[in-house]
Amino acid sequence: MENVSKNLVDLAALQAEAVRFVDTLAPAEASATLVTLSGELGAGKTSFTQGVASALGISEAVTSPTFVLEKIYELPEDASHGFKRLVHIDAYRLESGRSLPPLGFDELMQDKHNLILLEWPEQVADGLPTVRTRITLEVADTGRNISYA
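-> structure tokens emitted (149 positions)
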């Protein structure tokens, strides 16, 4: 995805942007699709992930995996955009990329049918492979700003 920045005035706009983003995705050729989400606490990383999950047909409640670190959701075939699983990782409490292998991260990255959304990539940057899309969310005077790189 090209470098783009947008202002999202409310939670509904954030959710709609997540749906639009999902429509741009397709599984990578050889490995999982890794998308990182950066931003301060309360910037909307988990809300964006909830929008992605909803767009992919997940009906269960999607909450932040801050304490469990990782949640894996099986996707229904009819809404999956070619993905089989949504993997949601919160690296906020991790100290370095060395914390990723115990989560099974390397194995998750080997499956091209996985869409991995990783919050707080700064915490584990030294252990990350190529990132497909880097998303940054910022609280603004008029909602939130989202930028893609």
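The mean pLDDT is 91.
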